[in-house]
Design goal:
two-stranded antiparallel ribbon, 42% helix
């Protein structure tokens, strides 16, 4: 899911900004030990599945923290071991029932999602489950991916490359420098941060927490993680809800192009809303408004917009623009950002969106490694196709079919040629034969994971159930309202499967 040169659209920008919020944990958790489930143990992994987890209060004392040992390379478990962090919010009435969660990305922190669980999930869910995050490989303190220093990474993200031979050369040089730094500074573990390995970590954690079956709630890229788990361990699936489904069968370019088109649709929906209301920064009809946005992007390629910090480049504007499109609740802020640009020639609010998305604080320091983990995990799951000449033609196609964002982001898979892979088979098709029902939630106006992906995901599963939210924004639960919330809660809490094809109005 590549957006902006090498980076994927992520569903966690808001979560990153809220990571210090209080969550749904018990007031005074006590240290405890959990032992394994009764399910079969994969051959060769007996020592890992036989370990005990020691839970202790986290630093803020509201949540419980632990670690587990896993093989760096599951195909050679006798080799190096790695440490995977776990975190949980203890439910008042959970009785040890566990719901594993993942916020997406790739690169989003599952442990941070636990810490903001009281802001994200209904109280019924928080009381009924221990909400558990298994930190994905490459993220946070879990085999962390390390690349450029903060200063160079900041410049890398905000540098624009025109669709010219000179721009292509400069982009490839910058991408190689970036990817080489990831390989050098991360070391051997960068080869083992793929979704397949993360799914195997999930099953190890499930067993060590004493759960005979997996309960899982995943958003955006988290649906790929959940789908991979279900494909590898269908017999271990219990209640699984996947919201904002991906399509892993698409090659890199077709996935990229589908997302660009998704943001074109989101732009149209935003403009239709804006032009009917007050304080809209646009006049005329939708096409005139679209042209004004296209002109703004073209202008910033050569003339960045002043802000309260560094000038807003075209690349930074691109990230700042897509961020509020993730949620229709943010559309008024998007209007304010455009008003600031058009009336004051200032891009401070767009710059704030850019910094939030990238995980930058006021000092220009990265508060997490989401952006670099995103690249490494995406590359681990990508079979590189084409060459620079092919990517140049694909960039031209994207610019034509997605005229707002396409011209701002030359397409390339060059970084994934540089970053090495483990050689493990990429899981790019989800059937999960024999699994329990898997509920796939799709949002009709989702810009980052287009609705057609959810339809295809649910249809491909042996026991898939499609639940549709007829609204805008990225993912639906629980922000989509009572209909969506009730349907998902009924399944996760009571095992009541929604009617396949059920639709919830916006």
């Amino acid at each position: 899911m590549k957006i902006h040169k090498i980076l994927a659209v992520m569903s966690v920008a808001v979560l990153a900004a809220c990571s210090g919020a209080t969550g749904g944990g018990s007031a005074s958790p006590q240290a405890q030990t959990t032992t394994g489930s009764k399910t079969a143990i994969p051959a060769g992994l007996e020592s890992f599945y036989g370990q005990k987890i020691e839970w202790k209060p986290c630093d803020d004392a509201e949540f419980m923290c632990a670690t587990m040992e896993a093989p760096m390379d599951y195909s050679h478990p006798e080799g190096k071991k790695v440490t995977i962090p776990l975190e949980k919010a203890v439910g008042k009435n959970s009785k040890g029932n566990v719901l594993f969660v993942n916020p997406g990305g790739p690169g989003g922190s599952a442990t941070e999602l636990v810490e903001v669980s009281s802001l994200q999930f209904p109280k019924k869910l928080l009381d009924s489950y221990d909400i558990v995050g298994v930190e994905p490989r490459g993220v946070g303190k879990s085999m962390p991916v390390k690349c450029l220093d903060d200063k160079d990474m900041f410049e890398f993200l905000r540098t624009s490359y025109p669709l010219t031979p000179e721009g292509e050369k400069a982009q490839n040089e910058a991408v190689k420098k970036f990817a080489d730094s990831c390989v050098k500074n991360t070391g051997e573990s960068i080869k083992f941060v793929g979704t397949r390995e993360a799914a195997q970590d999930l099953d190890l954690a499930r067993h060590l927490l004493g759960s005979d079956k997996m309960n899982f709630l995943g958003f955006s890229y988290g649906t790929q993680l959940g789908g991979t788990y279900a494909e590898l361990f269908p017999q271990n699936v219990n209640r699984m809800v996947l919201d904002g489904a991906v399509d892993p069968s698409l090659n890199g370019f077709n996935s990229y192009l589908a997302q660009l088109k998704g943001f074109e649709v989101a732009t149209n929906n935003y403009l239709d809303w804006c032009l009917k209301g007050k304080d809209c920064p646009f006049t005329g009809d939708r096409e005139q408004a679209r042209q004004k946005i296209i002109d703004l992007f073209a202008k910033t390629e050569h003339k960045p917009i002043p802000t309260d910090h560094e000038p807003l480049t075209q690349a930074a504007l691109t990230i700042g623009y897509i961020t509020p499109l993730y949620s229709s609740e943010s559309w008024p802020l998007l209007s304010r950002a455009f008003n600031e640009v058009f009336t004051e020639n200032k891009g401070t609010l767009f710059d704030a969106f850019f910094r939030s998305y990238a995980g930058l604080n006021a000092k220009g320091e990265f508060t997490n490694n989401m952006m670099v983990a995103n690249t490494a995990i995406s590359c681990a799951d990508t079979q590189v196709e084409g060459d620079p000449a092919t990517w140049r033609k694909q960039s031209e196609i994207a610019a034509k079919e997605a005229p707002i964002l396409g011209p701002t982001m030359p397409y390339s898979e060059y970084q994934c040629q540089v970053i090495p892979k483990s050689g493990a088979k990429i899981v790019d098709n989800f059937k999960a034969k024999g699994s329990a029902p898997i509920v796939v939630v799709g949002t009709v106006g989702d810009p980052a994971t287009p609705y057609g992906w959810a339809e295809k995901f649910a249809k491909g599963l042996d026991n898939g159930v499609l639940l549709t939210y007829e609204g805008d924004g990225h993912t639906a639960y629980p922000r989509g309202g009572k209909c969506i919330e009730d349907a998902v809660n009924a399944y996760l809490l009571d095992g009541k499967v929604p009617e396949n094809g059920k639709r919830c109005a916006a």
